[in-house]
Amino acid sequence: MVRFHRRSGLRVMWASALRVATANKPAPPPPFANPDFANVELLINNGDGSDGNQDMTDMSLNSRVATYLSGILMSNVEEKFSGSVVLDFPVGQNDGVTFPNLNSFGSGDMTIEAWIRPHSSPTNDPATIAQIWGSISFRAWRLQYDSSGTIRFVKGPNGSTTDLTMVSTLTVNANAWSYVAVQREGNNFTLYVKGVKDSTAVNTTAIDDGNNQACRIGIGGTSAAEFRGKMGPLRITRGQALFPGAPNNIVVPSSPFPVDIMELESTAHRLELEATTDNILLEDSSGILVLQDTGDAITLEDGAGRLALD
Predict the structure, then answer these.
(1) Is residue 62 a contact partner of residue 215, using CB atoms and an 8 Å limit?
(2) What is the rounded average pLDDT of the residues 153-181?
(3) What does the pLDDT read at residue 83?
(4) Is residue 3 classed exposed, middle or buried when 0-12, 13-18 and 19+ CB atoms within 10 A define those classes?
(5) Could you give the maximum distance between any two Cα atoms of the chain, in Å?
(6) Per CATH, is 30-238 categorized as 1.10.1420.10?
């Protein structure tokens, strides 16, 4: 299997035995907040996929496989960032995407972020942006778009009850892109809408694991709870609050979320770029990938079609 990652104008191809994402030059981190990449639990709609297909990938280290429900497709119409595709949730279809086996937030810090462009307000239940939530015994958390245009976050401590509901005062407009985020830092929860701190709450209990059910994107338990519109980059981070101290205003992302990783798929032989200054550079003249400042290199062996360490 051959897949692609794209970053800073450089496209790198890898086979199933090796996965590499690179930057074409050392660069400072973007001005918006970013987590330690190892803490990213799910990263989707981040510039991959192709128009009219169901080929979105989880670009986190977990590489979870998407299950598409009904007629949902990727689309390059009304995309958030130029040259990328987004999830298109048609009106009137029971459609969405699910991802299995997300790790529980528990009592730790976390951040959920999403770009949304709703076509219309939901008619009944709040529309699901992302959730691990179901019937009794399966309730963990949910991020939603209300019929009034507000953003809602709900959590449960034991799978059966709800002990926190946050609803924004700011609204999200139909047919316009908006960035929404919720974070937990210690026992402090903060809801952001379009870069503005909107709602805060204190809650001391853990977030339930939802009995390990799949994370649902764009759809709840019924068709009435489905999201209608477009959804761009969505990132779920476990173990890290991206906005320390919950400032009143945060920098809204101005590009897809970065992917900073070099990884061998074998868990026993994994390499990671631990800092933004440690990059892999493509040498124009020799056609090799050089690990900066180490003297090590990765070369494409002639005729073998594989990558090998020099």
Answers:
(1) no
(2) 94
(3) 78
(4) middle
(5) 62
(6) no
